[in-house]
Amino acid sequence: MHLMTFMEVVRPRWHERALVLAVQGVFFNAYFLGYLVSPKFAHRVTGYLEEEAVHSYTEYLKDLEAGKIDNVSAPPTPPIAIDYWRLPADATLKDVVVVVVVRADEAHHQ
């Protein structure tokens, strides 16, 4: 759901979507091979990725609070995030990151 929320915020162009699709294809195959060789290694990689996600969202939150990212309420929080996480209708992007939503969910996956 995090992906869908930020896709609504960023609205990537076709070439950005194509790049993401290509990178996902490479990562999927590399991860699959890694899992075949060592499931323990693959699970550890997943843990590291989740930890990095928590760090990234924390840095994003610091930038929001420091005012480095303009118009925190514009674009408005996508309806998909409001519905999924049951946020108030006037929620901002900061609310999406702070309200246990994204950061805590990622931390839970570690």
UniProtKB/TrEMBL annotation:
Cofactor note: Binds 2 iron ions per subunit.
Compartments in which it is found: Mitochondrion inner membrane
Keyword annotations: Electron transport, Iron, Membrane, Metal-binding, Oxidoreductase, Respiratory chain, Transmembrane, Transmembrane helix, Transport
Membrane spanning residue stretches: 20-37
Keyword Mitochondrion tagged: no
Listed GO CC annotations: mitochondrial inner membrane; respiratory chain complex
EC number: 1.10.3.11
Record membrane topology: Multi-pass membrane protein
Catalyzed reaction equations: 2 a ubiquinol + O2 = 2 a ubiquinone + 2 H2O
Main EC class the enzyme belongs to: oxidoreductase
Leader sequence segment: none
Cofactor: Fe cation
Membrane as UniProt keyword: yes
Subunit structure: Homodimer; disulfide-linked.
Protein name: Ubiquinol oxidase
Organism placement in taxonomy: Eukaryota, Viridiplantae, Streptophyta, Embryophyta, Tracheophyta
